[in-house]
Amino acid sequence: MGIRLGDGFLRAQAEVVGADQVSDHELLFRNRSLRLVRLAHTGAGDVWVVGDLPEGAVSTAELDRLLGLLVAAAIDVRQRVPQAARRRARSR
Fold this sequence. Notes:
Elements: E1 2-6, E2 9-17, H1 24-33, E3 37-41, E4 47-54, H2 60-78, H3 83-90
Antiparallel strand pairs: 1-2, 2-4, 3-4
């Protein structure tokens, strides 16, 4: 996980699952219900969860909220990874 303050925003992001473990349709569907955070692909296809707060809105409570939403989104996506893909990811 990484957190960075720059360009007027605090950004937190973390890798969720590797490439080809969750369908693009599933990710787009999940993005529609997320607040403050979103799911994104890297060039290699890995799935990350990313959240931004305007610098002026950063407080202990808002940072805690953002990190909680990041974790919730990551758990939600990981639960949609088929069992076979989970076993392959753990064996790497």
